[in-house]
Amino acid sequence: MPRRRDSPPPQPAHPPTVTRRVLRLLEAQHPDAGTELTFRNAYELLTATILSAQCTDERVNQVTPSLFERYPTPAALAKATPEEIEPQIRPTGFFRTKSRSLVGMARTLVGHHGGEVPADLDALVRLPGVGRKTANVVLGHALGVPGLPVDRHVLRVANRLGIARSADPVVVERQLGAALPKPRWTLASDTLILHGRRICKPRPLCDRCGARKMCLYFADGGGTAPARGAGRSRRPTSSRKTPVP
Fold first, then answer.
1. 193 by DSSP, 3-state: which?
2. What confidence tens digit (pLDDT) does each residue in 195-230 have?
3. In 3D, which of 113, 112, 128, 111 has the Cα closest to residue 46?
4. 57 classed as catalytic
5. What does each C-alpha distance from 137 to 12, 99, 145, 150, 206 come to in angstroms?
6. pTM given for the model
7. pLDDT per residue as tens digits for the range 10-43
8. Of these residues, 151, 168, 201, 220, which one is catalytic?
9. Which domains does the chain possess?
10. 151 carries an active-site annotation
């Protein structure tokens, strides 16, 4: 029997030229796009991003000042126990899991990276509590390395617009990264996140979207009905809908 080939990866509905045009429109609409987490160095951003899982940035920013005062470096945090940290981070939710991640992260930095946050994606995702999204946030915002974090907002907005076509964050990251120059990756992610929070919500405000004329979801009539999850997207030659992230 012939060897079965894997199906080809999905392709965005829009070509790279349109993707770049869409991002320019959204960047103009959200000139203040950027991370809302407060930090002074890569260690602080890494810690804050771990804490931000299932928690608002505003709540994290209320917790981190006292945490960083007590544990200003990875070496200081590495000497703590999860039980000591739990009361300080309780307002962020999932505090037991997060406290173990923070201590494990700090001990790994001290034991394997000289107490420094590595400017390398593969090294970052090997740290306890650090996934690809967190690693890209730290790379792009604190270490000057292009990173393209994909969260639920990026998934929803990119699929609705037609500049991505997948429910898989890694696939969407690759699709957007292939369409954009590396220096634009971090800003593109920040812009899509902010657009998802302000405009392209689960129930979108399409009349306020600066890119609606190129949005497949809007063209499909999505702006006139309640949205579901990540919304819809379609390729110009097919009626199949994009999976809902």
1. helix
2. 999 999 999 999 999 999 999 999 998 765 433 444
3. 128
4. no
5. 23, 20, 10, 9, 28
6. 0.85
7. 789 999 999 999 999 999 999 999 999 999 999 9
8. 151
9. 16-33+149-224 (1.10.1670.10), 42-142 (1.10.340.30)
10. yes
